[in-house]
Amino acid sequence: MDRARTGSTIVAAILAVIVLLLFGYLLWSDAPPNRSELTVDPPIEVIEPDLPLEIIRSAEELPDSETIREQEAEEFVDRLADSNSDSIIVNEYEDMFVRPDSIIALPELEQRVTTLKSLMDDKSLSANTPLTLRYTEQISENTTLQELEAEEEDHIAPVTIVTEQGETITAPLVELLKRDDIDHTAPVTQIRQQKQVRQIKASELADADIPADQEMSVTISRGVQKLDIADLIDSDTAEMQDSLFYLHRVTEEDVQGLWGIIQTGLIRNFRQGIRLQRNGAEQNVSVLIPADADEPLPTGLSSFLGKILHQKVSTSYVYNFNTHTMGYDPNIIHPGQELILIRFSGEELKDIYQFFAEQKSNTTETFAIGR
Q: Are 328 and 266 in a shared domain?
């Protein structure tokens, strides 16, 4: 009986709590909002800015890689020749492309094999006469065979040493190291022949620190000779006006003839590239032409570059600026007195750029074309 009464009491208490909670919730939800409203007079007008309309182009509207290469090739060829200078100086070892209406300046160079003493006695040289000296200097360095073994990478190449006893020996380093009569730790003098190239004025010869009897090849600048490309070559035709001329002064290093001259010039100029504006920033645009891109392939196919070089060699201009005569024999060139002129059309240069820009990631086999 007591248990039943206790249970009823608990149930009644729970119901009372529920009723109180429900009543409190109803009172709270009917209460007015606890916030204040402010009326602004005049009302504030919110103006949204006019944002620029951004056009998102579909993939079909973006230029493809071929179009980009064509645009780059166009700009590259347009900028390949300098058109800002009144006259363009063409020095040895400084090849360049010029336009058919260019005026070029050739320093008049005299080549001579002589000695330092003879140069100093030459009354035709003024104090400011520019000279380029090329000679081989003998360098003596104290060392040991042990040091040479550690420093020299090529142990097969001959070296010349002078022992403490005054004996001069020239032999591959590997052979010297095998000799029992030479102490590897004993002092020896290594004799090396080192090629030197120095550009100085005649007034500086006395202080050049070169032996008076030193034999050397000397290039003497005797002034400047100006030439008009239009006078050298009939460039009045529309075909010529669309051309660029590659210029090269023949030197003693041109042992590969015209083929090597043109190949080296293309490789160097295309690899060097030009500066162009890209997306608001200046970038260097260039193309790598492989050194062996002119070689025929075992399959018997001619290379793209080889075909171009063959055609350019046979149509080259060789101007002798000493005799003021134009020659066309690609097999006869004279260092120090001739200027090579190779004509390229704008389309040819663009094709070269596009070809190697497209093939740069492919294998050498892709440089081939059918005969």
A: yes
The interaxial angle of helices 65-80 and 346-359, nearest 10 deg, is 130
pLDDT by residue (tens digit) across 105-145? 888 878 889 999 999 999 999 999 989 999 998 889 999 99
- 135-189 pLDDT, tens digit per residue, is 998 889 999 999 999 988 888 889 999 999 999 999 999 999 999 888 999 999 9
Q: Is residue 263 part of a domain?
A: yes
Residues 203 and 251 grouped into a single domain? no
Whole domain around residue 285: which residue ranges?
A: 65-100+233-369
Query: 356: which strand partners?
Result: none
- Regarding beta strands 130-143 and 168-172, do their DSSP bridges make them parallel or antiparallel, or are they unpaired? unpaired
Same domain for 250 and 300, yes or no, is yes
Neighbours of 86 (CB within 10 A): 8
Same domain for 237 and 365, yes or no, is: yes
> Residue 299: CB partners within 8 Å, gap ≥ 6?
365, 368
With respect to residue 125, please indicate whether it lies within any of the assigned structural domains.
yes
**One domain for residues 254 and 148:** no
